[in-house]
Amino acid sequence: MSNMLSPLMIGLLVLVVILIGTFAGRTVRRLVPRDHLTEETKSLVSVSMAVVATISALVLGLLISNANNSS
Questions:
Q1: Model's pTM, two decimal places?
Q2: Phi, psi at 11, each rounded to 5°
Q3: Can you list the pairs that 15-20 forms with residues at least 24 positions away whose Cβ atoms lie under 8 Å?
Q4: Is the pLDDT of residue 27 over 80?
Q5: Which domain holds residue 69?
Q6: What is the pLDDT of residue 69?
């Protein structure tokens, strides 16, 4: 039974971490001066997020490939 709850607990933990990150981001945005919230900065953040997403997808793909090869 504990194995069945483990993925649920991990999912809930991930949800809580994402929500905490969201609220922290909203709080920090209020503290950042207006001149730092330009279109150039937003573009830089978007490109950075795209790089992180691409690397995450690559790591996930390698992880799945490794799991398929080991079984």
A1: 0.59
A2: -60, -45
A3: none
A4: yes
A5: 36-71
A6: 84
